[in-house]
Write a structure and sequence with these properties.
Strand content: 25-35%
Radius of gyration: 18 Å
Structural class: alpha/beta
Number of strands: 10
Distance between the termini: 35 Å
CATH class of the largest domain: Alpha Beta
CATH topology of the largest domain: Rossmann fold
Order of helices and strands: EEEHEEHEHHHEHEHEEHH
CATH superfamily of the largest domain: P-loop containing nucleotide triphosphate hydrolases
Strand order of the largest sheet: 6-7-8-3-9-10
Oligomer: single chain
């Protein structure tokens, strides 16, 4: 079933076109990889989808509703959640309090603080932070902060989860753990779009990969097709994949 449809999406900052006539579809249950060189428009795409930016033109349809240009809190209430390239946890809040924010303000908010706390504790366990519930976010490692931000997004009960370089800066073991967790999240019924530069990881978890360059979609298909695409090799992957 079609969950998200994007048609003709464009966004410019002055003379710089960050997205140009972008078309994207996402079906329920998919993991979609979004890759491309730095500055190709990946994060701008996520910002447009989640209401952090308004498009100059184009339409965004989510669960059959035209949501183009809606502010981010409306998008959250409709079932979109995201993480950020640079983590945006609340540094003075404990890990538990950070996740409770997601339960309070996301899709299907919790009816009480007590219920929010119980659900937040369970979600911390899912991402490996059960023992860090009372630790301030500022005292967590990079990996732990990334998992905390993911937990907060999950607490919003999203239908579509957008992950912006959640594996950046992680060591190989942590990256493998993150990939396993992403698959588990998808298997729980949440559709996922992942922006990532670790090619091996994104190919290992994605059903389809969309490639952007200079704001335009230049390729789309299964991972094994994308890594052998001559244009993708030229502008992004490099000779190692030729």
């Amino acid at each position: 079933m079609r969950l998200l449809s994007v048609v003709g999406l464009s966004k410019a900052f002055g003379g710089l076109r960050a997205n140009a006539d972008l078309g994207v579809t996402v079906d329920e249950g998919e993991i979609i990889g979004l890759i491309g060189p730095n500055g190709s428009g990946k994060t701008t795409t996520l910002n447009l989808l989640t209401g952090f930016l308004k498009p100059d033109s184009g339409t965004i349809t989510f669960r059959g509703e035209n949501v183009t240009g809606l502010p981010r809190h409306h998008m959250s209430h409709r079932g979109l959640a995201r993480t950020f390239q640079l983590t945006r946890t609340f540094p003075n809040f404990t890990a538990l309090q950070n996740v409770m924010v997601g339960r309070a303000y996301g899709h299907q908010p919790s009816p009480s603080l007590g219920a929010a706390g119980e659900e937040a504790q369970e979600i911390l366990g899912r991402v490996g932070l059960a023992g860090k519930a009372q630790v301030p976010a500022s005292e967590l490692t990079l990996m732990q902060r990334k998992m905390l931000e993911l937990a907060r997004a999950l607490a919003a009960r999203p239908r579509l989860l957008l992950l912006d370089e959640v594996m950046a800066g992680l060591n190989p073991g942590e990256t493998e753990d993150a990939c396993r967790l992403i698959r588990e999240i998808r298997d729980s019924g949440i559709t996922i779009v992942v922006v990532e530069h670790i090619v091996q990881a994104i190919c290992g978890i994605s059903d389809r990969i969309i490639v952007l360059n200079m704001g335009k979609k230049i390729a789309e298909g299964p991972p094994e097709e994308i890594i052998h695409n001559p244009q993708v090799i030229e502008v992004y992957l490099g000779k190692a994949y030729a």
